[in-house]
Amino acid sequence: MRILLFFDLPTETGTDRREYSRFHRYLIKNGFMMMQESVYCKLSLNAKVQESVLNNIRKHKPPKGLVQLLTVTEKQFAKMEFLVGEYNGDIINSDERFIEL
């Protein structure tokens, strides 16, 4: 099973930004992988592990904002379709130091 976590947290004040950073670090430290900005995913081997993860998220959620959790099977997760925009050759996507235009 996979646990998908979606969140929308405020970042208007310094306290809000600290809570956002704390929650982000908590997710990474506990094995969540970022799929997109504010969308994370974690593999769960069985229902007992899943419930443990969900309980820990409930304990560590920020006081403000929205956090949503969705559990899907591996078969459902494997059917995810990735759609990307059109290729744009004008964008420089290289780590080379010398680029001749």
Characterization of this structure:
The protein has about 100 residues and is α+β, with helices and mostly antiparallel strands. The protein has a single domain, classed as Alpha-Beta Plaits, CATH 3.30.70. The protein has 3 helices and 4 strands. The protein has helices at about 15-30, 45-60, 75-80; strands at about 1-10, 35, 40-45, 65-70. It has a 4-stranded antiparallel β-sheet. A hairpin with a 2-residue loop joins strand 2 (about 35) and strand 3. The longest helix is centred in the first third of the chain and has 16 residues, at about 15-30. The chain is flat. The termini are far apart.
Any idea of the CATH class? Alpha Beta
Q: State the low-pLDDT regions, or none.
A: none
Q: In the CATH hierarchy, what is the architecture at level 2?
A: 2-Layer Sandwich
* Total tally of structural domains: 1
Overall, the morphology is flat
Helix tally equals: 3
List the secondary-structure elements in sequence, H or E: EHEEHEH
Strand content bin: 15-25%
What is the share of helical residues? Answer: 25-40%
